[in-house]
Design brief:
With about 600 residues, this protein is α/β, with parallel strands linked by helices. It has three domains: about 5-240, Glutamine Phosphoribosylpyrophosphate, subunit 1, domain 1 (4-Layer Sandwich), CATH 3.60.20.10; about 245-445, Rossmann fold (3-Layer(aba) Sandwich); about 450-605, 3-Layer(aba) Sandwich (Rossmann fold), CATH 3.40.50.10490. Helix content is about 35%, strand content about 25%. The protein is built from 19 helices and 25 strands. The protein has an eight-stranded antiparallel β-sheet. Strands 5-6-7-8-12-13-14 form a seven-stranded antiparallel β-sheet. A five-stranded parallel β-sheet has the order 17-16-18-19-20, sandwiched between helices. Helix 9 runs parallel beside helix 13 and helix 16 (about 475-490) packs parallel to helix 19. The radius of gyration is 25 Å and the shape is globular. The structure holds fructose -6-phosphate. Fructose -6-phosphate (F6R) binds near residues 299 and 482. Fructose -6-phosphate binds next to helix 9 and helix 16.
């Protein structure tokens, strides 16, 4: 996590960096800081808390200089105070860093024994001291980098500014993302291309282990062993126009409302709108011989994987396991020859998922990336890519990326089912038509958010909330609970409805709202029995269902939401929207920051 940025320009660096950091604040907002070089010296401003606090500091004490580095922090080592805010400075060297230097304790002990004194509790500061020592011993900044890089272990990206070197930045990446931006007589670096979008779309992505020397005249890249390498310049697909909030109060609200479009665009990446034909990306293009699919993901993306398992089994007739990336990477999983792993990630940068992907490769699996960022590390390390076309997602709580993942997975299941002969042409047509209708039904739900406002009022005041669902609705119950807890801090749990009687039922009393996700599908009657069990214990039922479900059960609900009728296969996509709205409106009611909830960051690039 953490967002990092570096600028070599002919304009003042501080405003350019603040602008880029605003687009990186989703990566962490515990503290922020900038350092610039001017007149042979380094100057630094830092503040605890969000970027707005740093802005106040800068207004009182502006930073001169046209070269600089900046940081927005998600704390790992050391509390989120000013002392631990980046940039960290030792002698002539300032460093901003994302990720973890795993051997920092040994390096710190060695540096202290050699006389260094530390100002912070961070792992980052060792890098500043090590580079400064090399430079003090007569090395050039480039030589210092070449000597220090092999001594660092872990997954990280960092950018270095050296006093007296106002046409130089050094940048390095190992596993954590880093994008270099090229300008006319200018060079930039940032944690992602979105940060740099308003200043340049000419991007060079560093590969794992690379480090680079940036000057206004150009960029030189070195591989981990210090040999110069060529890295291709690309034009980023992200434009400045895609990254505003529009008239919405929060990015999350905008992104919930972006969903009809995000779903439609994603669908057409898998299914040709003219012919209705679904295409399979490699390595799934040899569908008949794929032995098994293993889905690897974290958080909300993991819930998309749990939903996909139902589709892949029933529509494509293919064996499927879904693994939490952080658990899978340390397991000696037994996977078949000819198996395919699908790494699912909005950002394409979650370190847990990246490490799980590498582990799956080592276990002989081919890998498909299902990501929202085409240039991301997970996309680049996979054998094939299926893009969700949700557009940039800034709200820390994932919304449109999730429904886009569901759409891509269902399209994929249909394409696989057709290719493997598991479903016939009529069934393909029925499912494609069902998918084509989803954007319209989602737009219908979004037309009137009034009912959710009333429910949100109750949820915002609850101590505990349960979400129940069966079959395809079970992962949506999990997702609903995650959305509520992460942005409102209300304790919420998602359960398989049939599992409730095995323990969680003990939690139910008249103070516990229970959200039941129950379209009238093949699981409905059993869910109805579980709802009766909740009612019998005084629980408050919030029922999400369709017309037939409302006719059967509506009388037993304290709040009833009737959603449009849709074929059961696409219901998870539609039923996600109410659980998102309820959580978002509860956060607004409580006054928590829906876009930047406490302790979280959007792109989790630490393990
Ligand atoms: C929850 C949320 C997280 C992410 C998770 C994985 O709203 O956003 O749980 O889903 O951190 O992130 P990606 O999909 O970028 O790998």
């Amino acid at each position: 996590m953490c967002g990092i940025v570096g600028v070599l320009s002919d304009k003042p660096a501080a405003p350019l960096m603040m602008d880029a950091l605003r687009r990186l604040e989703y990566r962490g907002y515990d503290s922020a800081g900038l350092a610039t070089g001017s007149g042979g010296a380094l100057d630094r401003r830092r503040a605890a808390g969000k970027l707005s606090a740093l802005q106040d500091v800068l207004e009182a004490a502006p930073l001169p200089g046209t070269s600089g580095i900046g940081h927005t922090r998600w704390a790992t080592h050391g509390p989120p105070n000013v002392e631990n805010a980046h940039p960290h400075v030792a002698g002539r060297v300032a460093v901003v860093h994302n990720g973890i230097i795993e051997n920092h304790a040994a390096l710190r002990a060695e540096l202290i024994a050699a006389g260094a004194s530390f100002e912070s509790a961070t792992d980052t500061e060792v890098v500043a001291h090590m580079l400064d020592r090399e430079i003090a011993d007569g090395a050039s900044p480039e030589q210092a980098m070449a000597r220090v890089m092999p001594r660092l272990t872990g997954a990280f990206a960092f950018v270095v500014l050296v006093a007296g070197e106002e046409d130089l930045l050094l940048a390095a990446r190992r596993a954590s993302p880093l994008a270099i931006g090229l300008g006319d007589g200018a060079a930039y670096v940032g944690s992602d291309a979105v940060a740099l979008a308003p200043i340049t779309r000419r991007i060079v992505y560093l590969e794992d282990g690379d480090w680079a020397v940036l000057r206004r005249s150009g960029v030189q890249v070195f591989a981990g062993d210090g040999t110069p390498v060529e890295r291709r310049e690309q034009i980023s697909t992200v434009s400045a126009a895609m990254i505003g909030k529009g008239n919405y109060r929060h990015f999350m609200e905008k992104e919930i409302h972006d969903q009809p479009e995000a779903i439609a665009h994603t669908l057409h990446a898998v299914i040709d709108p003219g012919t209705g034909k679904a295409t399979l990306p490699p390595p799934l293009d040899t569908a008949e011989t794929v032995a098994k699919i293993t889905i690897l993901a974290a958080g909300t993306s993991y819930y998309a994987g749990l939903t996909a398992r139902y589709w892949l089994e029933s529509i494509a007739g293919i064996a499927c396991e879904v693994e939490l990336a952080s658990e899978f990477r340390d397991r000696k999983a037994v996977l078949p020859d000819g198996g395919v792993a699908i790494a699912v990630s909005q950002s394409g940068e979650s370190l847990d998922t990246l490490m799980a992907l590498r582990h799956a490769k080592a276990l002989g699996q081919k890998v498909l990336a299902l990501v929202n960022v085409p240039e991301s590390t997970i996309a680049r390390e996979s054998d094939g890519v299926l893009l969700t076309r949700a557009g940039p997602e800034f709200g820390v709580a994932s919304t449109k990326a999730f429904t886009a993942q569901l759409t891509a997975f269902l399209g994929l299941a249909v394409a696989l089912g057709a290719a493997r002969g598991h479903i016939d042409a009529g069934e393909v047509l029925r499912l494609v038509k069902a998918l084509e209708a989803v954007p319209g039904r989602v737009a219908d739900v979004l037309k009137d958010t009034g009912p959710y406002q009333i429910i949100a009022h109750d949820l915002a005041r609850a101590r505990d909330v349960l979400y129940l669902g069966r079959g395809l609705s079970y992962p949506i119950a999990l997702e609903g609970a995650l959305k509520l807890k992460e942005i409102t801090y209300v304790h919420a749990e998602g359960y398989a409805a049939g599992e409730m009687k095995h323990g969680p039922i003990a939690l139910i009393d008249e103070h516990v709202p229970v959200v039941i996700v129950a379209p009238s599908d093949g699981w409905f009657d059993k869910t109805a029995s579980n709802m009766a069990e909740v009612r019998a214990r005084g629980g408050k039922v919030i029922l999400l269902t369709d017309k037939a479900g409302a006719a059967a059960l509506g009388d037993g609900a304290d709040h009833l939401v009737v959603l449009p009728d849709v074929p059961s296969e696409v219901a998870p996509i539609l039923y996600t929207v109410p659980v998102q709205l309820m959580a978002y409106l509860a956060a607004v009611e409580k006054g928590t920051d829906a876009d930047q909830p406490r302790n979280l960051a959007k792109s989790v690039t630490v393990e």
